[in-house]
Amino acid sequence: MKGLIGILLATVLGTSQPVRGAQAPEATGLAFAVPPPTSNGGQAWKDSHSRALKLLAEMTLQEKISMVTGQRGPCAANSESIERLGIPRMCFQDGPAGVRPALGHTQFPSGITTAATWDVELIYNRSVALAQEFYDMGVHIALGMTTGGPLGRSPYGGRNWEGWYADPYGTGVASFYGTKGFIDVGMQSCAKHYTVYEQETFRNPFNFTEPYSVYKASEQVPISSNVDDKTNHEVYLWSFAEAVRAGTTHVMCAYNSINGTHACANSESNNLHLKGELNFQGALISDWGGTWGTEGFVMGGLDLNLPGLGYGNILGNFYDQELYQMVLNGTIPESRLDDMVVRVLVPLFASGQYDKPIPSTVINSVGAANWPEPAQYRNVQKRSTVELIRKISADGTILLKNTGGLPLKAPKNIAIIGQDAGPNLLGIQGCGKLFRDCDIWNNNGTLSLGGGSGYAWPNNLITPLEAIQAKALETQALVQFVLNNTATNAIDLTITGRALPMGQPDVCLVFAERYVRENMDRNDLSLNIGEWTHSEDIILQTAAKCNNTIVVLHIPGPVIMEAWIDNPNITAVVAPLLPGEQTGPGLVDVLWGHVSPSAKLPFTIAKAEKDYPPNTISYDISVTPQADFTEKLKIDYRWFDSYNITPRFEFGFGLSYSTFAYSEIKSDPTEVPDSTSVQKTNESFVGQQDGQSIYDMVLTITAEITNTGRWTAAEVVQLYVSFPTAENQPPNVLRGFTKLKNMKPDETRTASFPIRRKDVMVWDVVVQKWRYPAEQTVTFRVGSSSRKLPLSLTHRFCH
Ligand code: BGC
Asked: Signal peptide span per the entry (predicted)?
C-alpha cells in the first residue's frame, strides 16, 4: 500500500493518522518579506475582475474563508459553492494526460512524446482536445499542464515524462501553446509544479508511507531545492512565465522548499516572481499536502489551500477556522483574504464557467468515498481525438538508429518479443484504480504512460501487438509472439525459427520498457529493473540470433544503451517514449513507412550515467534534506556541451527516412510588437522604453532547408544561441524551433525563427532585470540537433 492510496484507505477505514505538526522545522519563523501583490485582472480579465469584486462585496467572512479552503466533495479537490450568489462547487481534477480517475476519456500521449514531435500545432491541438474532455466530464479546473516542474534537471526524475523538454525554452513554447489550448475552450488550467520541483525523493515527508520515508511523518521537512537567482530566472522560471503569458488561470505550488522555505509559503518565489514579475492574476493553489501552516502561507502568496477539508482533513487543518480567527484578530488583513477570493473568482468568470454551467461531474475520487455520486463513466472521446493522438504517437516516435531495418520491407514472418508489446494480463485496472501503481509480479503489458497522478486510464488501448496483427492481416504476414520476458526457451525457439517450418523471422521486433511513477525517482537508467522487466536481457537475447532485430523503447526518459546499440544485428531502434492509448497504430505508421519519422529527442541520452551532472537527486538522509543546484544553467545538453562529453544521442537528435540539407542563414531586423501575450508580464529589461515588451520580436532569422532524400518527410529545424564568453553561459542554448511538414523530395523551404528580446538576453542579478549580453552580440546557429548546427550568423543589437 503506497502513497496517497495508503492514506486514503486508512482514512476510509478509520485508522488514526499522525497529524502534521505545526511545529515541524521551518513551519515556524517563516520569512515573508515580500508582501503579496493585489490582483487587478491584468489586460485580459479586467471585466472578470470587476465582476469578482461585486460578488465579493456580497460575501460574509465565513463564505470568503470557505472559498479559499478546499471543501469536501467528489473531486481531487473542491471549492465551496455559494448558491445564493450563483457560485458553483468547482471540481479540480488531474491530470496532464487525461482525466483521472474515471473512464470514457482518452489516455493522451505523455508530455515527452508530444514534445518529441516539436510540433506546436499538435501541442496546441492536444490541449484543446484534452480540455474538451475535462469539460465534458464535468471538471472546472484541470490539474495540468506540467509546465516546467519538473523540467528534467535529473535524468532519474520520476515525473519528467509528464513534462516536456529538458530545456527552459522548449518547455516554455509547450507551456505557452499547451496552456492556450486549455484557455481557448473555456477550461481553467493549472500550471504546475511551481517551482524547482526536480525530485520525488523527500518531496513530502508528511506522507510516511512513501517509498523514501525514513522518519515519522512530519519529523522531516521537504527537500529544499537550493537555486541561485540567475539559474532560477534563466532556467526554471522561464516556462512558468510562458504559461502565465498564455493566460493560465491557476498555478500549483510544489511540495519542495525553495532555498529553505516551503514553495507554497515562499514570498520571493510567489509574491516577487510569480505575482510581481510575471504579473500572475489567477489563483496560486497548493499541491496536496504542500501546505504546512496558515499565516506564513497566506502571506507567502498561497491563495487556495487544497485539498483543504477534503480527504477528511488529513493533509492538515490549515486555513479554514484558523484563518477565520486570524482575520478577526487582525493577524491577517481582510484585504489579503479578499484578494485570495477574487483570484479564485476571476478565472470562474474569465473562463465563462460562471455564466454557462459546465456538465455535471462524473468524478468520484476515492477520497470522497461517501460522496453520493457514484458515476465515473461517461464516454466523451471523439473520433477526431483518436486520430489526433495516433498522429502524435507516430510523429513523436524517435528513430534513433537505422542501418536499413526501417521502414519494414513487406515482412512475411514477424516475431514480436516482450511483454511490453501486449495487454496487461489483469486488464485495464491491473495497475490499480488511481495511479498505475503496478505490481511487479504481473505482466503489466505495454507501457503507454507513467504512473502517479499523471496517469489516466485509456478508453481503448490498442497495443502494438494488436496493431501489428491487424497490419499483418492486410499484408498476409505470419505473426508470432512471446510476451513473457523470462521465457528464454520460447524466445529462442521463435527468433531462431526452430518453432516453425518457415525458418527465421524476417524481422524480430523487441519491445523494451522502463516504468516510473510519481513518488519515486529512478535508481538507475537501466532497462532491467531487478526481477521485473528484463527488457535489456530480451534485447540482447534477440539480437544475438536474429540479424534483423528492431528495438522499440517505451521509456520515461534516458536509458543507457551501450550494451546493445552498436550490435550490427540491431538494424533499427525507435523510441515512442510513452505514447498513450493509440500506441500500436502510431507505431505501425512509422514501422511500415506510412509516415516518415520526424521526432527528435527532448532530452539527452548519455553513454554512461556518470556523464550526466552529478547528484541531481539528493538521497542524503536528514531531517532537512538539501538539493543544491550546483550545475546551475548547465542542465542536460548544456552540461554535455560545456564539458565536451560526447553523448550517445544528443538533445534534438532524430533520424528520418529522408535527408535534409541546410543553407543560407539570414537575418531581418524588422521589429514587431508583442501581440501574442494573453496576459502581459511585468518582466523588465535594461534600457526599456515606454510601450516596449520583453516579448517584442526584434529579429527574424531564416534558413533554407531542402529535402534531399526520396521520401516526403518533415524536418524539425532548431536554432541555438551562443552568448559571448564573458556571459559564462553554456555553449549553445535553444531559442527556436520550427517543423517543416510534408516536404516533397527536392523541395526547398524557408525555416523562419522569430527572435524575441528575452531570447537574446540574460538575467542580471545586480539590477534585477534582463539585459543584452556583453557587446550586445550573439551568434545564432541553425541545424538539425543540438550538435549538428551547420549554419551560423553573428548579430549585434544596437539598442
Ligand atoms: C501531485 C499533483 C496532483 C495532486 C492531486 C499530488 O500528489 O503532486 O500533481 O495534481 O496530487 O492529485
From this structure: 1-21
